[in-house]
Amino acid sequence: MATETYVQATAKERSREQVLENNVITVSKITGTNPMYYKVTVTKPSTLEFQFFGYQGLSGTIALCNKNKKVISAISMIGTDGDTGEQIYVVDKGTYYYKFTTKNQKCQVLSTIKPYTDKAGTSIQNPKELQKGQVTTGYVSLNDKKGAVDYYKLTVKEDGDCKGLYFGFDGQGSVKITVKIPGYKKKVYQVKSGLTHSIHRPNEPLVDGTHLSTVFPKGTYTITVKKLTAKTNGSYYIGKTKIVNQV
Fold first, then answer.
1. Which of 59, 93, 115 is the C-terminal boundary of a domain?
2. How many domains does the chain have?
3. What are the pLDDT digits (tens) for 216-244?
4. Among 9, 52, 107, 214, which residue has the least CB neighbours within 10 Å?
């Protein structure tokens, strides 16, 4: 549970920075329209969650900056549906600033740092093997360059052993997932934040806009996940499922 400390910024101080401790609530008094900079230090690759609290209808804008206070993320509107607003970023170790602007005079802010281990394959020669019945989580960092790629391999030992892949992305921006299937042209999906795709064999028929549960034939498949813009960041998952009886 978060502890609480009170640090107020007067009108004169509002453009100065405040240092946020991990999982500690800071109370800020902000006047005017100048942004408030909140400094955070990350010692290993992590997700950064920024939350602010107030009455219903509290709103503002939030962006993540590098150590020089240059914006490196998309600028997002953030508002409270009830009493809390939040934004999550994925970053490598380093020093960052939340750039927060609100017209409200007083709010509470909270930064939570959660380290992660990215096990994605780093090259086509060294892909991460997807395991049946397991969900693999990957991360797209703000520090990754545009066009950075994660590599995965799917091995289907018998026809009917795998009916499809399920992919979801949660973050800012979008990623491109490419499935290279023996005997077919590669199949490409662009997945935006908050969306989930089911991925099946190419050339299958569609019913009411959804995929039929056709199976992957026996073979080895290469799957890549590509960062599309410099400001894309977030986490994604890939799940391999076993075929089920069809009606």
1. 115
2. 2
3. 777 888 889 999 999 999 998 887 765 43
4. 214
